[in-house]
Amino acid sequence: MKKSILYYLITIFTLINIFPQHVFTQPHLHIERNFEALRLDGDQAWLSFYDGPAYEGFLWNNQGNITLGTTEFNPAGKLKFVTNLQERMIIDDQGRIGIGVVPRYKLDISGSESFTLLNINQTGNGRALTIQSIDADAIHAISSNSSAMEAYGATYGLYASASATGGVGVYGQSSQSVGVEGYSGSSASYDFYASGPGMNYGAASSRRWKNNIKNIDEPLKKIAALRGVYYTWDKAHGGQHDVGFIAEEVGKVLPEIVGYEENGIDAKGMDYSKMTPLLVEAINALQREYQETIFQLKNQIEVLENRMNAQVITLPSPASENHLKSANENK
Predict the structure, then answer these.
(1) What is the number of helices (H) and of strands (E) in the chain?
(2) Reduced to 3 states, what is the DSSP secondary structure of residue 201?
(3) Helix (H, G, I), strand (E, B), or coil: what is residue 202?
(4) 103, 61, 66: which is closest to 81 by C-alpha?
(5) pLDDT tens across 70-99, in order?
(6) Segment holding 91, helix H or strand E
(7) Residue 236 region, left (φ>0) first, then alpha (ψ -120 to 50), else beta?
(8) 90 bridge partner residues
């Protein structure tokens, strides 16, 4: 006598209810098949995960669109993806995705590996990545030991723009080192290049933020202690011919504009733009010396003129000259 499908279903559910605490390595339902083992027919077929008074999760075929998720009866439910019994990725109840971390942002990636956490390789003509933010930072990259972000491209390695008034296209911040660094491998190109209609370079400056203001003292003496030089960079810095200063020499005159290595002896860079205040004060000093010299020369000329005007020079009249001539002839 053939046994009905209902018989087998009752048997399966009976076994499941009899052995609810079965060791998890021994499944309650085991289907062994090399091909299709289980089918849910229908364009709205779904598989539910039931725990307690409501359906907490489901796998749903919605007219060919496969959906895995949690229901409204499980508002705090999360989707967790596990390999090797280790949690790899989480999608939380707010739609935030965490890879290697409980997500705090829409996409949160964390790891202690020595390799790159995220790599996007675009071999076509389109952009590898476009990120847009309306009211806040589009990209906020932080790293404590290495590069937070590296970008390579045929035209732009990194292209960033800001549309808000007062917005910043690229912002770099460092607590101990360089905020933004630029490098060009060609001596005919630029490490940084400005092509827009705005000011090429700006540094924060306002009387509101500055205290203890005083002029640079002895600017001409400081200028005399400096020298401009031609030189050739070493291979690590491009190897090209260049012109500039020796930072260690400048540091003895203007230590405020030179940055040093941890040993406090070897310089690692200087701010060339801050040579301008010294040059301005040197020109002012020369102008004062020039004006003082002109004033002294004018005084000397005036003294000479007064002396010349004080001397009375009497020249003989023509009648006197004839009288003297007749007297000489009579002799």
Answers:
(1) 5, 11
(2) coil
(3) coil
(4) 103
(5) 888 888 889 999 999 889 999 999 999 999
(6) strand 86-91
(7) alpha
(8) 80, 98
How far is the C-alpha of 198 from the C-alpha of 201, rounded, in Å?
A: 9
The CATH T-level fold of domain 214-324 is Arc Repressor Mutant, subunit A (1.10.10)
Residue type at 89?
Answer: M
CA angle 205, 208, 209 (to 5 degrees): 60
Task: Please write the tens of the pLDDT for every residue from 256-305.
Answer: 999 999 999 999 999 999 999 999 999 999 999 999 999 999 999 988 88
**Spans of all domains in the chain:** 5-109, 214-324
C-alpha distance from residue 36 to each of 32, 52, 281 (Å): 10, 31, 87
Helix (H, G, I), strand (E, B) or coil at 190: coil
Written as six digits, the tokens of 118 are 């995220």
Q: Is 258 helix (H, G, I), strand (E, B) or coil?
A: strand
Residues 6+ apart with CB under 8 A from 216: 222, 277, 278, 281
Secondary element (H or E) of residue 48: strand 46-50
